[in-house]
Design a protein that fits this description.
- This protein has 265 residues and is α/β, with parallel strands linked by helices.
- It has one domain: Rossmann fold.
- Helices cover 42% and strands 15% of the residues.
- The chain has nine helices and eleven strands.
- The chain has a five-stranded parallel sheet, with helices on both faces. Strands 5-6-7-8 form a four-stranded antiparallel sheet. It has a two-stranded antiparallel sheet with strand order 1-2.
- α2 crosses α3.
- It holds the Pfam family Phosphatase.
- It comes from Streptomyces antimicrobicus.
- This is Phosphatase.
- InterPro entries: Phosphatase_SCO2771 (IPR031423).
Length: 265
């Protein structure tokens, strides 16, 4: 078992998500959410997370409607400031959809690439998932060496691709590091991943390139949920992607791996 954490029931996991503010009343304020929805709708590519949204999401209210449906933010457009929410039921629903795709990867012994732009919060979530898939017989893709993007180095730590700058793992939503990996794999004549498990621009870039991709995103990062709504991204799991103690994610990962049939491999 990649993490020594008991597997919670669905109800117990929902309680845990609320208590730790991974879901429920999350730390991201309403005004920040709406600002990001508006910037995405206005065509700011920084908020597209590597996806090509074209002119399909130019109305902030359309973006809000999708986020209310898929994330559980407050659906009232008059609510402009204060508390916003992630529905923990939707978080667990997303985990169960992701588990189904991980189960398929294990059955088919697929090549899987892991990456994160949120190493402070999600690195160990991805590491534990990679360890479980490796134990199940999957090939965890090793990225080419010497890659650079966004004035940093793209390298792998505990089977997870990250961006490094100045000996620090970097928080980034940019799609450029994933693009560097995929371009280098193709240039070396190596097969592309069958599945990418990531977050933010790393997941969006992979999905836009036509790869099977699943990922995590916060309530102020609407692009992946729009990508899921359009069928470009297979799964987007809503959660607060940087809670104070990353160990709070351990019960969530235990539930994910148990649902995928990956514990005890």
């Amino acid at each position: 078992m990649p993490i020594e954490t008991p597997v919670p029931s669905r109800a117990a996991l929902i309680d845990h998500l609320i208590q730790t503010r991974i879901a429920g009343q999350v730390a991201t304020p309403r005004e920040n959410n709406l600002s990001h929805y508006r910037k995405l709708a206005n065509g700011d590519r920084h908020y597209w997370l590597g996806l090509d949204l074209g002119d399909r999401w130019t109305d902030e209210q359309d973006v809000l409607a999708v986020m209310a449906e898929r994330v559980g933010v407050v659906d009232d457009p008059v609510h402009r400031v204060g508390q916003d929410t992630i529905d923990p039921e939707l978080t667990v629903d997303g985990l169960e959809r992701m588990a189904a795709r991980l189960h398929k990867a294990a059955l088919d012994q697929q090549r899987v690439l892991f990456a994160t732009g949120h190493p402070g919060g999600l690195l160990d979530v991805h590491r534990a998932t990679a360890a479980a898939l490796r134990a199940a017989g999957c090939e965890i893709v090793v990225i080419p060496s010497g890659l650079t993007a966004d004035e940093g180095s793209v390298w792998q730590f505990a089977d997870v691709a990250v961006l490094e700058r100045g000996a620090t793992l970097w928080h980034t939503h940019s799609p450029a590091p994933m693009a560097a990996i995929l371009d280098a794999l193709a240039a070396e004549g190596r097969p592309l991943p069958d599945l990418v498990v990531a977050d933010h621009g790393w997941a969006g870039c992979a999905a836009q390139r036509g790869l099977d991709a699943v990922g995590y995103a916060d309530c102020n990062d609407p692009a992946l949920f729009l990508g899921e709504a359009e069928g470009t991204l297979q799964v987007a799991v809503p959660l607060d992607d940087h809670v104070r103690d990353p160990r709070h994610y351990d019960p969530m990962v235990a539930y994910l791996l148990h649902t995928a049939g990956l514990l005890g491999q």
